[in-house]
Amino acid sequence: MKPKRIEYIDVAKFLAMILVVFAHGTKESNFVAFAFAFHLPVFFILNGMTLRIENQKFGDFLTTKLRRYIIPMFGLGILCVLADLFVKWFLNNPIPDHFLLIGIANVINQIRLFAIWFLPALFFTDIILFGFHHLAKGKLAIMGVLSLLLLGVGILFNQFHNVPLVWNFDAALFGTVFTYLGFAFRHQKLSGLYNFLTKVRLRALIIGVALMTATYFISQYSYGLSHRHLEMFHRVYIPYYITLPNAIIGSLGFILICRGITNPILAKPVEMNLALLAFHQILAFPIFRVKICPEWWASVSKLPANDLKYTLFTSALTLFSVALIAVIYLAIKYSPLSAIVNQPLAGFYRRKVSGKEFPQA
Question: H helices within 7-70, ranges in order?
């Protein structure tokens, strides 16, 4: 039986994706430092909040995760290569030799390729946490200790051999502890804390705003020290003692705010998250900047990120990305490729396969 969706978690996933698109579309700034402080960790935590491990057979669990993460990684990865080829042709940019072959090889390796790079990292965090659950015999505290030990391995690796690994396994070394925290947050053993924070919407909103305010000031302090911020793509985590706790505070604050404002209208678009993740940088951004609004882009591109004109352009860029990719998502959803955006095969395809649409005489 398919588990019932939790509305505020879907709201958080969709709004976090909008934040990702906006942050990718703007320049390095204090706001970017704030957004990047939690905008990827929150996906790991939300993933943990919906993770089902108890009473799961590993074979069934693995199959589910391959379907949820790895099939989209390959399917959307290939479509991204084709979209990149289209954009180069559309904008009259040079196309390197063997472009498609190299692109497909990169999809297979998947080392920080396109914005879908963290799908395999999510896959590994789920598999690792399943293993920790088995080793700990379901004991939450032991799972936490194992997750912290793995985080220690990740910090040592990041400190002394900071390179991306195939399928971005290095990100999973950090992501596992975030996924564990999400899993623990909704665990029955912490139901008292969970209910206190989420049961009353107004209380969730107030606490969420307080936590997000703290995250903002912490992120600005950290950014002021070195002009660097948490950046999982580029493997920037230092100073660990600031960025990692701040990521947890910001993620929880963001989730609680979404609990406070939850609404079905904001929850439904979560279905297009994978498509939005895949295509916003590779397709929507260059088309909007170069073909749709080239003069507007030329007039604001050199402005600072905090300039109102630049913010308005980035907002329009984000809205255009959502609108364009909504069309692309629907085209994929109602095609035989629906699995790559985690959607079931449309009914008319199932009827054709089963033969019900063309009954025998």
Answer: 7-25, 30-36, 41-49, 58-65
The single-letter DSSP state of residue 66 is I
Mean pLDDT, rounded, for 5-24: 97
What pLDDT score does 360 carry? 39
Res 361 pLDDT > 50: no
pLDDT tens digits along 207-223: 999 999 999 999 999 99
- Inter-residue contact 1 to 252 (CB < 8 Å): no
In our burial notation (b when 16+ CB lie closer than 10 A, e otherwise), range 191-218 reads: eeebeebbeeeeebbebbeebbeebbeb
Spatial distance between the Cα atoms of 353 and 358, rounded to a whole number of angstroms: 10
Q: Which residue has the tokens 């959803």?
A: 333
DSSP code per residue over 261-313: H--HHHHGGGGGHHHHHHHIIIIIHHIIIIIISHHHHHHHTTS-TTSHHHHHH
